[in-house]
Design goal:
heterodimer, A: mainly alpha, two-stranded antiparallel sheet, 2 strands, B: alpha/beta, Rossmann fold, 6-stranded mixed beta sheet, 4-stranded antiparallel beta sheet, 9 helices, 10 strands, globular, binds adenosine-5'-triphosphate, binds magnesium ion
């Protein structure tokens, strides 16, 4: 059937494919390691923000605890590699599965809470997870786990000097999250989730199962977030609770989507493209020791965008036809 | 006549407020039943009970002989109860078509047939030209129509309309009445809540009058307008309000 929805979706696929090709070519002329690293981290966060968007954007369940799934995914693949020799290319799927499972465990009690209480509960649960890992000797406690280098290998996702392979790993990851979001947007699930976000009572009256919808969104979102954690751990070569499970990280995962436009296909990517370099640059120029300055700049950008463009950066481009929060008021 | 819906001694209180007290009536398949009564009479509460949104404290509700009270709104929707809301509840991040598709997915797993069914429903409700508009962008009467379209897309046997015509101009209300007749012609049974007697009574075969949560009387439109209790409930209400 040819109407505006199907045409729009086809166009999005084309734009996505073009962007993918551009990002495949992007690092080739760039020799400088610092810039390549910046691009890799930005793409990773674009994927993470999209993963967050699946639950927070489409289903409207604002999670400030995604660091938990990220960290656990990283630990699972790392420990599988270090303790059992399972190659991380496989381990990252295990990390994703456990991340999704934990997201379900968190959702089971927390989705019974509504609105802000859900967000608060996720903060608390993630903090508990962080403290558990900080004091758990088997996973290295506060020291974390170093991943021994065993030679360049795609299976182990280890490369001594090259950055390019990691670029393609995070790109494949981000593309997968995008494709998942694209499929969700056009499916029964996606419609149910958006209905749940907009108006629970109306959604129920149309036969939408609210709790299972939230759980499904959480599982998929947790899966990709856990996978991102596994890739990150392999990229930096070690894992500890501070770098992979902190509350600050939870915010860094959520903010690009919020800034770019929640519940949209391109918002999280746009947000990550703006925010991640900003955060990395401010961290390196304003001194790595001064933790928090980068977050202050982050905060400032968010406030400015929230005031000027409540619907997110994407609305600047007029791409966002269905802006949430119409002036005539939206249901609670 | 075969009863499609049976409401049997339904009572529901919220805190100290008795919203419905021992309400009983039947709805025949194919009819349009009016549900009228002054503000706070318990009309919306009763709709919430029939649609499964609230569970009655006592009594039961049966749809084609099967108990539906207490089964929840999702099951009620699956069994064939559709509803609109007194205060419009559109999905404001979606277009008009997407709103109706949410309803259509109740009967179609896949997107293409759901979209096709939603488009047909929009057409039926006279909203086809608005399909790609954001839902929040519609005028108030169009929003009411969207609520009807969304509910119709779930292919209900019984449609609950809560003040669908309230606040419309006479012309808008007239086209709303036509839509209700068209829906009935499709074989959908309707219960409609409405304040304006001049609009409800010509449309319905029978009306249930609620007052202070109780059934005051049930009867044909002629019986209702001549009933002294009804006149007192309405006039009393008006004097109290003044
Ligand atoms: N969820 C609720 N919680 C508390 N009280 C409620 C609730 N729902 C209804 N009530 C109370 O029950 C009574 C009946 O309300 P209801 O909304 O059913 O009346 P109504 O006949 O629809 O009135 P109106 O014509 O104003 O829409 C009112 O006193 C109302 O305050
Ligand atoms: Mg009411």
């Amino acid at each position: 059937m040819d109407n505006r929805i199907t045409r729009r979706r086809r166009r999005e696929l084309v734009v996505g494919a073009v962007l993918l090709v551009a990002l495949i070519l992007l690092p080739l002329p760039i020799g400088d390691v610092y810039t390549r690293n910046l691009i890799i981290i930005s793409i990773l966060f674009a994927g993470l923000a999209q993963a967050w968007n699946i639950l927070g954007g489409y289903c409207g369940q604002i999670s400030l605890g995604h660091s938990l799934y990220f960290g656990i995914g990283g630990y699972v693949s790392t420990l599988l590699f270090v303790q059992a020799g399972v190659p991380p290319l496989i381990g990252m799927f295990a990390g994703g599965l456990v991340g999704g499972l934990v997201a379900l465990l968190v959702g089971w009690p927390c989705f019974r809470l509504s609105g802000h209480y859900y967000a608060i509960a996720t903060v608390v649960v993630a903090e508990i997870g962080y403290l558990l890992f900080l004091n758990w000797d088997f996973v290295g406690g506060a020291m974390g786990v170093y991943i021994p280098f065993k030679g360049d290998s795609w299976l182990a996702l280890q490369f001594r000097t090259q950055k390019l392979p990691y670029h393609y790993v995070v790109l494949a990851f981000a593309a997968a999250t995008w494709l998942a979001a694209w499929c969700i947007e056009g499916s029964r699930w996606g419609f149910s989730w958006r209905a749940v976000k907009d108006d629970v009572v109306a959604a129920r009256s149309l036969g939408v199962r609210v709790f299972p919808s939230k759980m499904a969104a959480a599982a998929i979102s947790g899966f990709f977030t856990g996978m991102g954690g596994a890739i990150y751990a392999q990229y930096v070569g070690y894992i500890d609770p501070d770098s992979t499970m902190s509350g600050q990280l939870a915010i860094l995962i959520a903010l690009p989507a919020v800034l770019g436009g929640v519940g949209t296909l391109w918002g999280p990517f746009l947000g990550a493209a703006v925010l991640t370099p900003l955060s990395e640059l401010s961290r390196s120029y304003l001194g790595g020791s001064g933790r928090g300055v980068d977050l202050m700049i982050y905060g400032l950008v968010i406030v400015v965008v929230a005031l000027a463009r409540p619907a997110g950066l994407l609305s600047l481009f007029g791409l966002r036809r269905r802006a949430k929060g119409a002036p005539d008021g939206s249901p609670a | 006549m075969a009863a499609l819906l049976r409401v049997d001694c339904v009572s529901k209180s919220f805190g100290g407020v008795a919203a419905n007290v021992d309400v009983s009536f039947e709805v025949a398949a194919g009819e349009i039943l009016g549900l009228i009564g002054p503000n706070g009479a318990g009309k919306t509460s009763l709709f919430n009970a029939i649609a499964g949104e609230v569970t009655p404290d006592r009594g039961e509700i049966r749809l084609v002989g099967e108990r539906i009270s207490g089964l929840g709104p999702v099951t009620c929707a699956e069994r064939g109860i559709g509803r609109t809301f007194q205060v419009v509840r559109s999905f404001d991040s979606m277009t008009v078509l997407e709103n109706v598709m949410v309803g259509a997915y109740a009967r179609h797993r896949r997107t293409a047939p759901a979209m096709k069914a939603a488009m047909e429903t929009l057409d039926f409700c006279g909203l086809a030209s608005r399909a790609d508009r954001p839902a929040y962008n519609l005028s108030p009467p169009e929003k009411r129509r969207l609520e009807v379209a969304r509910a119709l897309a779930t292919k209900p046997r019984l449609l609950l309309l809560d003040e669908m015509l309230t606040g419309l101009t006479p012309t808008e209300a007239q086209s709303g009445v036509q839509l209700i007749r068209d829906v009935q012609a499709q074989g959908v049974t309707i219960i409609m809540v409405e304040h304006v007697m001049e609009i409800v009574l010509p449309l319905v075969s029978r009306a249930v009058v609620l007052n202070l949560g109780r059934v005051l009387t049930i009867g044909s439109p002629e019986e209702i307008v001549r009933n002294p209790d009804v006149i007192r409930a309405y006039l009393g209400d008006r004097y109290a309000a003044a």
